[in-house]
Fold each of these.
Amino acid sequence: MPNFSFSSTAEEVTDGVSLVGKTVVVTGFNSGIGLETARVLAKRGAFIIGAARTLEKAERTLADLGIDGAAVACELSEPASVRAAVQTILGLDRRLDVIICNAGIMALPERHHKYGIELQFLTNHVGHFIFATGLVDALAPDGRVVVVSSGAHHRASEVGITFDDLSGERSYEPWERYGQSKLANILFARSLQRRFDGTSRVASSLHPGVIKTNLGRNNPKDTQAFYEQMDPATLKSIPQGAATQCLLAARPEAANAAGRYYADCQPSPSSVRATDDVLAERLWQVTEEVVAGLE
Ligand SMILES: NC(=O)c1ccc[n+]([C@@H]2O[C@H](COP(=O)([O-])OP(=O)(O)OC[C@H]3O[C@@H](n4cnc5c(N)ncnc54)[C@H](OP(=O)(O)O)[C@@H]3O)[C@@H](O)[C@H]2O)c1
């Protein structure tokens, strides 16, 4: 991988890369690093399929960006909406070169749950599981799935995935539950890669850095305190925050990223649990069961 690092921007890591003729799907493309990702990959020539909670938001975002693309409604915490989004995208009849599972919610102060699943786990992991596995048949032979996780996956290092309390009813701590959902993102990418093995398809995951976006909207006081106690030098701008996922989506060298976790535009160590393939496979099986029950 060229010498990209913490401070590299999405434009820098994709400089000289042509995505003309390529189709990229991005969830949560109306805000934060998803918006910058869509903007920059479109600038490199990609046709963007942008997913947002509502069609209106997605259409407005495409119009604001002034880019070539298709707008799709996808509310990740509603399985019917995710399945409808999958059908809409398949109906476009385009070969998908990259699927970026970017959308997310963080550290909800109170426990919220739907369908018996804690909302961060449902949105960040289960919704993207339905989305990406639903689209995989349309993925190009050398297509990529890029899953946006977080360094906060370490917050679940002790508990791992609480399979016996997926609703969070017995125990709920906002950051630990966010951490579980982000651990699940990494494990999902690993398990998907195992299913891609022997092909040229690549699944990877990443920590984008710490960036002031709208992600703290559900927990503004806590998030503000978090930013205040941080050394400003450790914060990234939005263009820097979008760099690692743009690199994994677009750079030819990232064909080597199979099953790996990146941060600061380079391969990075993750928690021990995040490299546990037995846990990853169990998560895949349990998620399939959960999804089957969400008809
Ligand atoms: N910012 C950071 O410091 C940081 C650090 C580590 C990891 N990350 C990860 O980076 C990713 C992008 O976050 P961001 O910082 O760019 O935050 P953001 O500005 O809040 O963007 C999040 C996006 O996800 C969408 N979203 C949230 N819930 C959704 C749902 N139920 N269905 C569909 N879309 C939904 C949001 O839509 P609405 O605008 O409609 O709510 C928004 O488009 C997330 O996965 C996050 O966990 C961020």
Amino acid sequence: MSWRSDREGWGLGIRLLHWSIAALVLFQWLLGQYMTSLGPEALAEKFVLYQRHKSLGFLLFALTLLRLLWRLTEPARPAHPESMPLWQRRAAATSHALLYLLLLAMPVTGFLAAAASPLGLPTVVFGLVPIPHPIGPDARLEAILLEAHAIQGLVLALLLAVHVGAALKHHLIDRDRVLVRMIVGR
Ligand code: HEM
């Protein structure tokens, strides 16, 4: 079992990062839906959940940076199956790049929206690490940033549906090792 990836399969590092980020994204999405559905009668719970959502956003941002750094410094990555057509290779590269981009962009719009909120609540990651706000309260900017955050969430959900569909197609129809090697390595 190797930490680094090679031509034969993904290393333990990338696999741990892939599946922990996947679980966190799913949890973060459910939390986002739930906390925004709460009304003013549940204000205390809403406050706690928004803080948790912000903290998880910072964690996702850090894990994605670490994953990109790890990935870019690996000696090699597993090859695509030989039978995979060129358009599918290009679609995979484009959708993976977009996934990385959204994983980094969503915490940024979320954090900036929180910073622009007229409520002026401080950001303290997991109640431990205070993060200074780069911008001050501005209701109009907050609305724009929240809209951008919601659109990014929608695009991410669509991309993930394609991503999971493609992984299942590899496994069930093409019967290659693309999904298996992301789980067990090689
Ligand atoms: C939910 C959040 C998820 C995110 C953000 C995500 C993101 C990514 C990214 C960015 C890559 C590209 C790796 C690289 O080349 O650098 C990747 C690869 C992969 N993902 Fe996901 N993924 C998620 C969930 C899933 C799920 C649920 C499955 C399985 C059903 C899956 C199956 C795969 C497979 C098989 C690969 C390897 C593709 C290859 O070897 O070329 N992913 N994922």
